[in-house]
Amino acid sequence: MVPIQERRDIPPDPAVPEREQAPATPPGDTAPVEPPPPPDPWVRGTVQGGDSLSVILARIGLDGASARAVLAAMTPEMDPAKIRLGQSWAARLDEGGDLERFEYQRSKTETVVVEPDEQGAFVARTDQAQTELVVAEVSGSIESSLWNAVTDAGEDGALVPLLVDVLASNIDFYTDTRKGDRFGVVVEKEMLDGEVLRYARVLAVEYAGAVGTFAGVWWTPPGAKSGGYFDREGNSLDRVLLKSPLKFALVSSQFNPKRMHPVLHRVKGHFGTDYAAPEGTPIWAAADGRIVFRGPKGGAGNMVILSHDGGLKTLYMHLSRFEDGQKVGDRVSQKTVIGYVGQTGLATGPHLHFGLQRHGKYVDPEEIKSVPRPGVPKNHRAQFIRESRPLFERLQGHSDGTDVTEPSEETPSDSTPQ
Length: 418
Hints:
By secondary structure, the chain is mainly beta. It is built from five helices and 20 strands. It has helices at 53-59, 64-74, 146-152, 159-167, 381-395; strands spanning 42-46, 88-93, 99-105, 110-116, 122-128, 132-141, 182-192, 195-209, 212-219, 228-230, 250-253, 273-276, 282-284, 289-296, 302-308, 312-322, 331-332, 337-341, 351-358, 361-363. The strands form three sheets. Strands 11, 12, 13, 14, 15, 16, 17, 18, 19 and 20 form a ten-stranded antiparallel sheet that branches. The protein has a five-stranded antiparallel sheet with strand order 1-2-3-4-5, covered by helices on one side. The chain has a five-stranded antiparallel sheet with strand order 6-7-8-9-10, with helices on both faces. The N and C termini lie far apart (140 Å).
């Protein structure tokens, strides 16, 4: 007979916690349930291919009469037919499906808003986003081009045409730039939520290189309708004749009276400079003048000739088309667009042939020494020097070899008008 073993109580393992019993739910009680979030009253989207505002309004559920009323309300603020892919829109509807608000974002700063008034008629307005104007300094060194130097400095290429515009009388950025040239600029930036929307005005600029050193600031003389760019002594940076009639281009052929013509394949005088540029590139009037010819001219294709003071004429050839609203006899100001780059006439590709005549004879445009425009008047020169000094100081150190010696306030520059 097997003896019965004595039973011993084994204590529970301390590493294994005892399971707690969940409290019993009283009969009839249930756990609380979170209510679902209310539906978003907004419908949002962007303009897609094939969209029109009528299509978008129908998509959100508006009937034809309501959609037409919305479009009619928007018409004073924008052309409803001119919408672009990717632009944002948003609509808010009430519980009955009626439109309470429609927003169309035309740009990063402009939104057209449509809402019903107290009588239920739709009315529209344009809301402007609050932007900030920031003054910033930018500097860089030329390695291959001004465009690359500006973008390498962390800026957008949109700054380049502003710099070219300021310095166009002194520097041809298609032939004069060299590796190692330096630039500095003080510029206004319009900002929205930390993003640069656009570059406003260039307040000061300096360029130093093989072509020379040029520096100037924007200043408006007392009583003047507009300002200009002046150097440290109050002389104007602008000259009577631009060094180049284009903002952007690559020089394909410089002045050479014994050049082999690329189409006729024979030696022919080539009195001027060819600027290779995409078709449709705007062409500036190189100086104030009067249109004396505007039309087709044989191998020159579509051509414009301007007559200027001092017996000068400028010629613009191979244009794809002329600027609208101009005719022979009209006077045009410097930097007025007179036409667009093309390849009409005898041309191997789209380019501008720019020629210059003095008293009826062709001369090399690059050898003409253009006369400066009037500078700061003598009686305002001391005020100009005082007010421009802070901007010139901000430019110091941005370009090598710049003379930052301040001019005397007592002695006016020789080119300063009385």
